[in-house]
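General statements about sequence and structure are easier to judge against a single worked case. Part of our work consisted of pairing the sequence of a single chain with a tokenised description of its backbone. The amino acid sequence and the backbone structure tokens for this protein are reproduced below.

***
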Amino acid sequence: MSSKYPRGSLQSGLAPHELPRSISKIYNISGLDVSLRESVISRKANLITYIAGNAIVEYDIKTKVRKYVFGLDGKGIGCFAMHPGGELIAIGEQGNKPNIYVCEYPSFDIRCICRDGTERGYSSLDFSSDGESLASVGQVSSGDIDYDKRKKS
């Protein structure tokens, strides 16, 4: 199945201090934000998937090979979730009006873009047990959890 949204067409432009992507190569991304809920997932005995800044990193423990998939909104990845069947991965970005990208797995071809779901970023994603629905929790700009603050009489 071909991607509905070619990844290259969705990448943001370069900031004034950035090198062109065509002449740069990532050697390694170190780091792991353990404060993020479900920031590490092990789907297979030898494969770990985790968030490191603006990238999803897949690390093969046996071969020591890493695969990097970079966020597209440019402000970091807030969370991700694997589909129960293993054929999809949802990536929740951070920043101003971020998106959720639902990608085919393991190719990371973008199948769907969920827009306008939050203002500042996504803190949690989860597929339903049957894989038919995706729930998201957005970050609120004040840092508070968004809930109904109406007083009961």
Remarks:
- Strands lie at 40-44, 47-52, 55-60, 66-70, 77-82, 88-93, 100-104, 110-114, 122-127, 134-138.
